[in-house]
């Protein structure tokens, strides 16, 4: 999220692509409603007429997976009418021209054909959005869960750049994050392709982290098969089972240093929430060891036929432990323990410490927490460690004391600006990152040059060199943060260029202590010097509309792997298959173009959320009150569609997927979905393709609701960059059970 929820109150227009905050972020949605009360327009683009859409001024029922044509359609109209922000593009963007050329192809007629949205409505939406300045662009899972999810999430910001809505109060990209602390979890390196703070896996970063963790780099190397494997991404959560199945029985091949996975340790994930549940079940069945650390009976243990070597460790909940969490807008909060861990529960860190002890690396694991002292204080010393090491996103100004003070005084911050008063005056709530130094107030809105750096201002990051093909990557004149000593762009700050760029002279001591660049400067001197001068350590560059290191340099439309429009799949085919993506063979074109699946599977299928359930749903289905609202798994469809198949409301139906899997669910009628579409919530499990597995629950632990999992029939398909499953673009066939 570049801005924050309260900032949405300052906008003039909100365009929502594939998010349903009225249901999934109901507290955050209050700010949308307040914005509307202030006169802002709300536009919703969603294949379903959701509760959010019900509040919209304009709503477009888009065909799943066609947001790129829709956005190019908007850009086409914007450029045709000269509604773009020419100065912004001139000084702060690299290569909008390529986008303009692609947008020309997407005439309103073509967009209507591909997306199903009438060209008059497209025009009306574009005009409303472009004429109400600034507008904010909001998205969530409706954009990401596609084979082209990454391209979707690049084109949204490009719309903002074209209109000059980036880096502005009331503008920006407000991406609504999911779980409590999911922002913090990804910041901390819970992804398989990076170290904490999004540091890439290369020798330089491993050496930096080894040094900062106080462990020998060679020891770190010794933990891997060899050095080469230190630089490779791991498996993703979405496809761990492929690591177990090891290419056998027609499963995707793996590239895992010649071995397959034998054991799975799960901490805080449902497992039943990932796509391809029939494969997940096969993966679970073939494990030698399954360890689940969870406050609830995680249903991964229930849906497997495995009879032994399954252990459920009772993890404590958030109420039984403390530490920092990071909100969707990058603000930290201190979470205080409410009660001691109940019964034999243990907080996650104690379980991890125990694991490290038994695996023989507890000393190395905790050394940096000690940081030279005799003992460490949990979790305060963990926060200090993070602040010492993570420069890239600017966690360097966080201290437990500062964060606690913010949490303790949270009533003294303004919700629209995040600015504090009284004891917290001059600081933004939760020190939203980047918070460069202990004197820095945090950054409420990213890339905002209307503020000085010491008040949260900054340009775009210089991360891709100084020039590309002879074109400067640095920002143009007049585009530096307010009061900057430099008028235009500047490079990211290194030991080598700091004196020239900042116009300072270092002492010998400073030079000796300083790391090679702002990202690996353990001494913190680079950040400190930059703050004194009002310079952003990461430089001031152009946002790239064309990213030359991506498969698609500019975002391109590619049809979902399983599309109801085979004609369009031939015109806008998916990617070539990839031999190893996060260690697993990942198929695209070979599946998409194998045959026209839509003849047999003519119905669009999308999945999503219910207000009373969360994620895999075990937590909520263990509550009789929440379960009562949706006591069983169902499928939303229009009565017109149901009639074609002789289905009446409340009938049980089979839903079949192109993979040959099926689920038996209850039909529920609604007019919220299009006539050729069904919608499935993904919060249920316990029944696998008609087989009730709930007898596997230990006595007295069966939840109050269970059913088939939508993810048994979600279709194969993974984003080419992140490997997120294509759970929002698939097809199916239905029949009365
Ligand atoms: N009650 C509740 N709240 C939650 C959660 C929960 O499980 N329950 N989960 C949390 C988590 S982890 C997350 S990530 C967020 C997710 O929050 P959202 O992203 O809002 O959740 P979804 O309902 O999965 O999907 C949003 C919308 O995308 C639409 N959509 C599907 N395909 C497309 C498409 O191709 N294009 C467009 N434009 N729209 C499409 C769907 O119809 C749906 O209305 O919610 C969080 N909040
Ligand atoms: N078809 C389809 N599938 C989807 C999606 C979709 O839209 N459609 N959305 C996807 C998205 S965005 C997400 S985020 C996932 C969500 O899916 P999951 O991450 O599986 O969702 P949760 O049910 O929140 O799982 C959290 C687990 O952690 C446990 N837990 C809670 N607190 C703690 C704790 O303090 N410590 C430990 N160790 N465990 C704890 C809970 O009991 C629960 O079992 O689903 C994904 N799957
Ligand atoms: Mo999520």
From TrEMBL:
Coiled coil, from the record: none
Annotated organism of origin: Campylobacter corcagiensis
GO molecular function, one term: molybdenum ion binding
Protein localization: Cell envelope
Protein name: Formate dehydrogenase subunit alpha
Record PANTHER family: FORMATE DEHYDROGENASE-O MAJOR SUBUNIT, TUNGSTEN-CONTAINING FORMYLMETHANOFURAN DEHYDROGENASE 2 SUBUNIT B
Family per record: Belongs to the prokaryotic molybdopterin-containing oxidoreductase family.
Limits of the Molybdopterin dinucleotide-binding domain: 604-729
GO cellular component term, pick one: cell envelope
Keyword presence, rRNA processing: no
Source domain of life: Bacteria
Chief subcellular location: other
GO biological process, alphabetically ordered: anaerobic respiration
Record-linked InterPro entries: Asp_de-COase-like_dom_sf, MoPterin_dinucl-bd_dom, Mopterin_OxRdtase
């Amino acid at each position: 999220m570049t801005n924050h929820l309260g900032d949405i109150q300052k906008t003039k227009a909100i365009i929502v692509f594939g998010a349903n905050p009225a249901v999934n972020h109901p507290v955050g949605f209050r700010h949308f409603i307040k914005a509307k009360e202030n006169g802002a327009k709300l536009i919703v683009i969603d294949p379903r007429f959701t509760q959010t859409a019900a509040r919209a001024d304009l709503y477009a029922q888009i065909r799943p997976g066609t947001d790129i044509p829709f956005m190019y359609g908007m850009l086409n109209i914007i450029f045709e009418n000269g509604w773009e922000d020419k100065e912004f593009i001139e000084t702060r963007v690299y290569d909008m021209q390529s986008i303009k050329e692609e947008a020309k192809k997407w005439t309103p007629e073509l967009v209507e054909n591909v997306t199903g949205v009438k060209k008059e409505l497209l025009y009306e939406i574009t005009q409303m959005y472009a004429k109400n300045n600034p507008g904010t662009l909001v998205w969530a899972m409706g954009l990401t869960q596609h084979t082209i999810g990454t391209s979707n999430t690049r084109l949204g910001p490009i719309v903002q750049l074209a209109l000059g809505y980036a880096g502005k109060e009331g503008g920006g990209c407000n991406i609504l994050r999911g779980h409590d602390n999911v922002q913090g979890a990804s910041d901390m390196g819970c992804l398989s392709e990076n170290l904490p703070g999004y540091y890439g896996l290369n020798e330089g970063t491993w050496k930096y982290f080894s040094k900062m963790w106080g462990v020998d780099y060679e020891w770190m190397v010794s933990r891997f098969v060899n050095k080469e494997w230190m630089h490779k991404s791991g498996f993703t959560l979405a496809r761990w089972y492929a690591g177990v199945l090891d290419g056998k029985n027609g499963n995707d091949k793996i590239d895992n240093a010649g071995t397959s996975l034998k054991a799975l340790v799960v901490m805080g994930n449902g497992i039943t929430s990932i796509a391809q549940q029939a494969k997940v079940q096969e993966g679970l069945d073939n494990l030698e060891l399954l360890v689940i650390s969870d406050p609830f009976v995680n249903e991964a243990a229930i849906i497997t036929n495995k009879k032994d070597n399954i252990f459920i460790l009772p993890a404590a909940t958030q109420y039984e432990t403390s530490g920092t969490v990071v909100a969707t807008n990058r603000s930290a909060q201190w979470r205080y323990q409410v009660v001691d861990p109940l019964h034999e529960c243990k907080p996650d860190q104690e379980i991890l410490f125990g694991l490290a002890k038994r695996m023989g690396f507890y000393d190395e694991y905790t050394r940096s927490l000690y940081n030279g002292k005799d003992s460490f204080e949990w979790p305060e010393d963990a926060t200090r460690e993070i602040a010492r090491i993570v420069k890239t996103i600017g966690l360097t100004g966080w201290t437990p004391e500062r964060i606690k003070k913010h949490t303790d005084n949270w009533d003294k911050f303004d919700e629209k600006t995040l600015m504090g008063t009284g004891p917290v005056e001059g600081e933004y709530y939760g020190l939203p990152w980047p918070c460069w130094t202990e004197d820095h107030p945090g950054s409420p809105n990213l890339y905002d040059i209307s503020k000085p750096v010491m008040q949260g201002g900054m340009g775009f990051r210089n991360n891709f060199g100084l020039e590309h093909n002879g074109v400067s990557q640095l920002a143009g004149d007049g585009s530096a943060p307010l009061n900057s000593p430099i008028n235009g762009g500047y490079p990211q700050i290194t030991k080598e260029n700091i004196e020239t760029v900042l116009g300072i002279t270092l002492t010998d001591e400073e030079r000796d202590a300083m790391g090679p660049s702002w990202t690996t400067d353990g001494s913190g001197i680079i950040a400190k010097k930059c703050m004194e001068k009002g310079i952003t350590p990461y430089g001031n560059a152009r946002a790239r509309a064309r990213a030359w290191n991506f498969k698609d340099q500019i975002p391109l439309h590619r049809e979902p792997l399983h599309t109801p429009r085979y004609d369009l799949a031939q015109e806008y085919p998916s990617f070539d298959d990839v031999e190893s993506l996060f260690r697993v063979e990942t198929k695209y074109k070979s599946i998409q173009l194998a045959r026209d699946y839509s003849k047999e599977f003519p119905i669009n299928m999308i999945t999503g959320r219910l207000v009373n359930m969360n994620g895999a749903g075990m937590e909520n289905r263990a509550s009789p009150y929440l379960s009562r609202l949706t006591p069983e798994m169902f499928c939303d469809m229009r009565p017109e569609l149901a009639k074609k198949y002789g289905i009446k409301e409340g009938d049980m139906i089979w839903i079949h997927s192109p993979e040959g899997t099926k689920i038996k669910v209850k039909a529920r009628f609604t007019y919220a979905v299009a006539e050729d579409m069904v919608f499935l919530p993904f919060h249920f499990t316990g029944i696998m393709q008609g087989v009730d597995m709930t007898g596997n629950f230990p006595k007295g632990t069966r939840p109050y609701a269970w059913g088939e999992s939508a993810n048994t029939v979600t279709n194969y398909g993974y984003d080419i960059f992140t490997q997120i499953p294509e759970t929002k673009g698939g097809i199916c066939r239905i029949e009365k059970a």
